[in-house]
């Protein structure tokens, strides 16, 4: 950005920072944390030198340069226990989401709320949620969005244990949690609770088939657009598949009638 603004830096550290970043990744991969942290400290030193050099030479930076300087200041001052950390310079809205799984402890991005029908797994609600909210707080807005899209309000919903907390549940909708004892469930509740896990393959298809796993659109608005387009693409694919399946059956049925008529004649 400094070169675009024709700011002549004392030293850009372009090659040195690239080498330090490569070394940092290699050391972390080899589980040599002391060496890796040393390279991280070196990168921060380079960033601080460039930042102070720009501030000395530019009195009134433009909006783009000013935002980059502010992000740089946050990166230099943030610590392990800081809130609202910067994980990406070019996407500062990215958050660290704890997965709680041994093979993948954390994911970086934003949460997405998803509502599907119990029988056919049609997606009837999708929201990109920023600031890493508690799952239970998102339930009412997810149901309201579904009602706005479909014109129908569900009587019962089946969710995982992350949505626990009756204070967050809407009063006119019965919420069934997956951690409820199966002995207390009726036969129908057991059946629908078993269907709850059918949302997991839908999430996987959205991530890997419809590009939700990596968003190429910028900013929070880009996250929302990406989530909506991925869900729309998933529904459209199901609709096209159903249409061609019906067409194949209709063609086969018509050919069968023609064959019978031919032999009859």
UniProtKB/TrEMBL annotation:
Pfam families: DDE_Tnp_1_6 (PF13751)
Domain of life assignment: Bacteria
Alphabetized InterPro entries for the sequence: Tnp_DDE_dom (IPR025668), Transpos_IS5-like (IPR047710)
Residue span, Transposase DDE domain: 175-240
PANTHER family named in the record: BLL1974 PROTEIN, IS1478 TRANSPOSASE
Identification of the protein by name: Transposase DDE domain protein
